């Protein structure tokens, strides 16, 4: 907006924050979503996920654009433990396509007051499966907040298997699994990078009353790090042991952390994801989706050596000129 490179690039007219707000309010979110889908589909066609037996969708929620006062109707109050309002912020759910090595952010859904991560997540899941097409992904990986019968059934109706974190919000199943695996040696032990993993895995648990599955498969892992730290978690899935062994479902569960580390953390630390320029739902989505597109393209270049476009090969001198233009120091006007 204010870059002195503008002049060098023959963009003479300057413009301010208002113009950018006006523009982002009116840009078409669907076009950007379609672009992201097209990039991810092309990546799969070009074998970016080759070597991955399964491809999943990982869903996760986060907050961005914190502020002291409510600035738009999408600002949700942030409360402390005493339920007092301590500020405002925006909430969104992101979905990424995850393989073993590659995590490609695909889409986001904003949810305002009166709405929830859970409903936003379901809308996002339906839209993602519809846009990617049938059989593009095999399963969806989610945290405990989505581990409910309606969500699991919605995923099943879309043709997806579910790999979900099991926590105390499903008390019967959670306690049954803890009782079963306690004091019993692990079913399998394997190395995962420099870590040692013990895994317990059984597929004959009773479903909780609202779940329409015949039985539930629960697995529990204890991951020992070289520094002595241990990470452990319970998960459930409707993959049979024949379809996916203990190690395979463990790796699917781990991909849930990819969206946090390679999705939000990367986006927030390196791409200014948390800063909101303009409190308008369309503007925010445009900003976030552009970030998602950037992350996806950057990863395809870095990890999968995406082929260059059809533009002519530039001479080194020409590349240097472009680089200089983009790095121009601001003129000293003091
Ligand atoms: Zn707002």
Features:
alpha+beta, 334 residues, globular, 10-stranded mixed sheet, binds zinc ion, 10 strands
What do you see in this structure?
- With 334 residues, the protein is α+β, with helices and mostly antiparallel strands.
- It has a domain at 28-164 and 245-308.
- It is built from 9 helices and 10 strands.
- Strands 1, 2, 3, 4, 5, 6, 7, 8, 9 and 10 form a 10-stranded mixed β-sheet that branches.
- Helix 5 links the parallel strand 5 (139-142) and strand 6.
- It is globular.
- The structure holds zinc ion.
- Zinc ion is lined by residues 71-72, 74-75, 90, 279.
Describe the structure concisely for a colleague.
By secondary structure, the protein is an alpha+beta fold.
Strand-residue proportion: 15-25%
Roughly how much helix do the residues carry, as a percent range? 25-40%
Radius of gyration: 23 Å
Uncertain runs with pLDDT below 50, 5 residues or more?
Answer: none
Our measurement of the CA-to-CA distance between the termini, rounded to an integer number of angstroms, reads 20 Å
Mean pLDDT: 89
> Please, how many helices?
9
What kind of sheet is the major sheet?
10 strands, mixed
Order of helices and strands: HHHEEEEHEHEHEEEEHHH
Query: What characteristic shape results from the CA principal axes?
Result: globular
Extended strand count = 10
Structural class of the helices, strands and pairings?
alpha+beta
Which molecules are bound besides the chains? Answer: zinc ion
